[in-house]
Amino acid sequence: xxxxxxxxxxxxxxxxxxxxxxxxxxxxxxxxxxxxxxxxxxxxxxxxxxxxxxxxxxxxxxxxxxxxxxxxxxxxxxxxxxxxxxxxxxxxxxxxxxxxxxxxxxxxxxxxxxxxxxxxxxxxxxxxxxxxxxxxxxxxxxxxxxxxxxxxxxxxxx
Length: 158
Known about the structure:
about 160 residues, 8-stranded antiparallel beta barrel, globular
């Protein structure tokens, strides 16, 4: 009888406990690139409403994106929203995009962008947290070298 009562009490207690989702809170907020080039200024803002804003740039380019995110285990997956205006498209981590023979993509086929700003296409890109860094998980089959590391930190570089 005591074992049944104890088992019932444990069952009731475990059902009544609410599971806390603290993991997304670790991801939300501003993240800054840690790239070695000082002129690169990239910010990834992960918002609590499951959206994100991405702004990047250097002396030779400027890019932006926005979209939604979702949790997959201990990983966050980002995907850009569809862009209604005309921009050149720059894939987030496609290393073949720097190939001079590659076709220039635009958000609307055949449009001619009137701004010198690119839309950064983020397509199911995954990140995880290690220590105090947000680290990009390179996709299987990526044309990027193994040395490519995209890492963000909570504090901007100086």
